[in-house]
């Protein structure tokens, strides 16, 4: 921990977070409970999909296109069929009649182009890695061997990997219908008036590089059939959505298809998908009548797990001389890749509502063009649209501060919504229900030791220290709790945003909670147990949480977008309340009292003013025995509930980052990082802190390390973990986290969601810090990821009046340099 | 096909294996030791780390034939007499896992790290675990867990030594 952090404040904060102590009283909600999930995970008694072995199981392997764009003129699978252990080999053509088209559930405009998307290519491949043929064999080695015996003739077609080039008149066409998938516009207020005669206008272009989500568990699928019943096990975040979509795609009736998400080793959006491999596993098991398994290798995954981000953002701010914002204009290009997958077009739209950030303004104007390129499709990745939006506004706010000679924190204060102004209707038409940006920021500044670090920065600049200090701030909000169904409907999303729960009291008084959410590391079993334990007055250990199997949990919308607690956790609470209502009726009957006279406390129903009562466990047994139930009351003590929120929730916070940038080598090290997040009421502080830590690391990954790089022919150059760098323990410091708690008013738990907060906030905080360190060198932007080479080149190129004497080398400047980056760099210019 | 003898979590197996079979696939597909997962195919992630004759090894980078005559300990063999290893407890106590996919490898690597440095600094833990990647935790709690595990292991050692005198 860095010495400049205020040790007393940090200790206080840690104590508050529950690490050093737990709140007194019996309440579970708010308590830093260690997780129930851990027992199987720390002992290796897990059910990852790849662990599943079924009798007679076969293994699938896919031959994948080595070219980004080509016509398939011949596929010869005959030699492969004769290889040892090979049971079947299929080309796309072999399955053409039954493979259907992978679904896109978010047609964002009336005139959107949704190309046919066969799970296995039939006539043309449109990205490197697209499946061309599939082998089914008796073990995974033999399946891999046989791939080599498949002959494919490709007629190469021109690749197009850059969005701007893809929109040119003479660009190679990814689809005959053209490379523009859609244009989506959104506006509020009079944007022309806001920019007319604006005293200050900041115009910048930022590149959101393409990312590979990199969940630690590679994707895996097991499909099996028994007559006309099918079961699909998949490392998925969305068993419920997947079942509906697979039924529609494959024609297997929904009631004959069970989808199970066993233990899932991380998702971050990448498992929020209906994949080619899931569809093909079902088709193959249907053809062969035998169970099949497919597990991807990491290098296969880097090619074919949907990618994230990949946007080109042109953002303009109009402001007054005192820093107050007048308006924001955004012109966005979003790379769809070669096809539209489940929610591909919707991702940039989620960002559309967030470019205004936490700020007040008179006008806003947003245009997004979705562009096809010959690359793996993009789709949801942690934060989905909101990290991109937050990055652009928070980078631009720093440029505004620089332009006006104001402190970056001060410039934010001048435009942000003050805590007295909530609920606040934003220029985007959202109602931010609650928040307190001042409190979170003040706390973060104190924990960080802001003034002391600024003093050190000045000192280093004056000393011409080759290692410069940069300080970066980002203040953010996001919209979570996806989502009110009617809002999703108005945005053309194909489904609602409700969530479902069933709460069952068992005859012995134990409790089963069945949730429609589908966790993959978020600790739902623990948090949902805490909610049910409090609501029903039963011990935490008496609650089991069941999930991730459509045969057990018959309804659900699954886990993504920080929606699980905010929608699913609230559904659990609602189901508990219904159970209690029934228990109260039963208690009144048994105690011969009026229901209104029966009080509930600590798991017992008592007649007001007497000691006479029944525990909820006794009532569960009575409801099971059903010997003496009131008229019209059914046996059993259970209930189900569906919660559809009226509004999104809006977590917010302030993150501060200090980096040391070695101007001689370009090396950049994070010295300290402070995050103060307001995620509303907290069910389990330990889990919240863990989610924040992980989110920060992932956002730092984008800022400093990660990028999916393609060559001009569309080949992915970062196919392994040796090329695509995610942060290791040695790359990161200890994070200091703090909280403020402004409960959400849109749900009875007051919760807001936390899964994406860290990722949204950290990327701009880190890049702002890197740029801050380099400003004396005349560097005012660094394109992500801020690699040592890129930083070194910028410093060398600038050769400007600098605090340290740095010699120019004559090397060309890396992209993204310059006072006003009005022209964008492309991924090909990556100076990786 | 070569015949090998390997002891895994205290049980000796004799197996005929293809020369190219990876140790991790022997463990997972043949012996049912699925507690050791595979996260990559380039030995970068460390999810498949096991103890091979007491030292940590990425089992995706070891051929089964190379393990002939060796003693392998996987995460499933770590608990003794139904009691978790202190490092398993420490990971739970410090909330050092979320999805848990990297956890077996992380715990095995941490145990080996402590053989060389029984009381590692934060920096030493971060350096020592560089070859094990986690995508969920941001490593803060993993570092705390390894240091807690180290303390508890050293305490346990001291307790064992006292009654012996």
UniProtKB/TrEMBL annotation, chain A:
Chain segments carrying region Disordered: 801-832
Enzyme Commission (EC) number: 1.2.7.4
Protein name: Carbon-monoxide dehydrogenase large subunit
Domain (Aldehyde oxidase/xanthine dehydrogenase a/b hammerhead): residue spans on this chain: 43-158
Keywords: Molybdenum, Oxidoreductase
Keyword tRNA processing: no
Keyword Oxidoreductase: yes
PANTHER family: ALDEHYDE OXIDASE 1-RELATED, XANTHINE DEHYDROGENASE
Pfam families (UniProt xref): Ald_Xan_dh_C, MoCoBD_1, MoCoBD_2
A single MF term (Gene Ontology): anaerobic carbon-monoxide dehydrogenase activity
Domain of life: Bacteria
UniProtKB/TrEMBL annotation, chain B:
Broad enzyme group: oxidoreductase
EC number: 1.2.7.4
Listed GO MF terms: anaerobic carbon-monoxide dehydrogenase activity
Keyword field: 2Fe-2S, Iron, Iron-sulfur, Metal-binding, Oxidoreductase
InterPro entries noted in UniProt: 2Fe-2S-bd, 2Fe-2S-bd_dom_sf, 2Fe-2S_ferredoxin-like_sf, 2Fe-2S_ferredoxin-type, Beta-grasp_dom_sf, Diverse_Oxidoreductases
Xref: Pfam families: Fer2, Fer2_2
Keyword DNA-binding (UniProt): no
All copies of domain 2Fe-2S ferredoxin-type, residue ranges: 2-78
Name of the protein this chain belongs to: Carbon-monoxide dehydrogenase small subunit
